């Protein structure tokens, strides 16, 4: 991932098209995930904005040869403070994306390429989903998908649970802390703890 690129990019879209496509996407962003990653890229003359497993697609003109990632809270802010002009410009400049009166810091991913294969989490992801992503994808894939910080936080939480000691006691604490993860049975949880312990041991060497 690159923090920024040394060029400007600009798209032109109709305000009505933009807001019609954006509203349902912004509504899908939970308040506790405003800092999660959304992305914008262009394919075949259509601007695509993605959060989790949902997309907004808007006919667009202009040059946007890369993928830009930014906080999903920006989508909510655009709906709460909608653009006021009919011919809307989406501008990338010096590490920020700007739409009408609002702007936000952003990262550039894989310049010169369309959106690559990447790791997705559902908007209502659970700890189990995060750990499965960690076990099945490389650090590079998680980083380029904007999920590295989510995985790091999950592993940190699991590390605290590991310190609780006995596996059965840890599982009870896990259920209390993550009630949405009850699909992860005790046997699977104990196996997961072993993996986490091994990872922590390797990291400390």
List the helices and strands and how they pair.
Blueprint (H helix, E strand, L loop, with lengths): L8 E6 H13 L9 E7 L2 E6 L2 E6 L1 E3 L3 E5 L1 H8 L6 E7 L2 E4 L2 E4 L1 E3 L17 H10 L2 H6 L3 H15 L4 H11 L8 H19 L1
Antiparallel strand pairs: 1-5, 1-7, 2-3, 2-6, 3-4, 6-10, 7-8, 8-9
Helix pairs in contact: 1-2, 3-5, 5-7
For the record, the CATH class of the largest domain is: Alpha Beta
Kindly report the CATH topology of the largest domain. Answer: DNA Polymerase III, Chain A, domain 2
Average pLDDT metric: 76
SS strand fraction = 15-25%
Q: By helix and strand content, what is the structural category?
A: alpha+beta
Could you state the order of secondary-structure elements as H and E?
EHEEEEEHEEEEHHHHH
Shape: elongated
- Numbering strands along the chain, what is their spatial order in the largest sheet? 5-1-7-8-9
What's the number of structural domains?
Answer: 2
Rg, rounded, reads 20 Å
CATH homologous superfamily (4th level) name of the largest domain: DNA Polymerase III, subunit A, domain 2
Fraction of residues in H or I helices:
40-55%
Which CATH architecture of the largest domain? Roll
- Which spans have pLDDT < 50 for at least 5 consecutive residues? 1-6, 111-116
